[in-house]
Amino acid sequence: NIKAGGILGIGVCNSGVYNTDIDAAIGVLPEYLERDSAYKRDECTLLNCSAILSLGLSYAGSARDDVMELLIDFASEEVEDDASEQDHDPRVHIAALALGLIYVGTGEDEC
Question: Of 45, 41, 66, which Cα lies nearest the Cα of 55?
């Protein structure tokens, strides 16, 4: 999907950029985190996953609480133990990875 690749490109281009005056990733990516959108479910999940990972790449090591607030709802969803692999929501796992990237090296125990 071209749109998902573009969303990931935002994260790659903004990784390591700490200019608080121009914060493009946080300005553009939250609109792709909406669960209830006009997209088909599979496409919506793909765009959600791309935006979540893109936020993780953009703010790796920054420990920004505002970004954590955007992602915590995805990461805190319950995963059923007896569900098949196809029933698992990939956004849960990718959000956990993104939060790990955001808080890497900070020593935060609460995340």
Answer: 66
Q: Which tokens is 46 given?
A: 């793909």
Q: Tell me the C-alpha distance between 3 and 1, whole Å.
A: 6
Q: Give residue 11's pLDDT band: very low, low, confident or very high (50, 70, 90).
A: very high
- C-alpha to C-alpha distance for 91 and 108, rounded to whole angstroms: 22
Calpha distance 94→45 (Å, rounded): 11
pTM of the model: 0.83
CB contact at 8 A, 13 and 55: no
Assess contact for 100 and 72: CB atoms under 8 A.
Answer: no
Residue 77, pLDDT score: 76
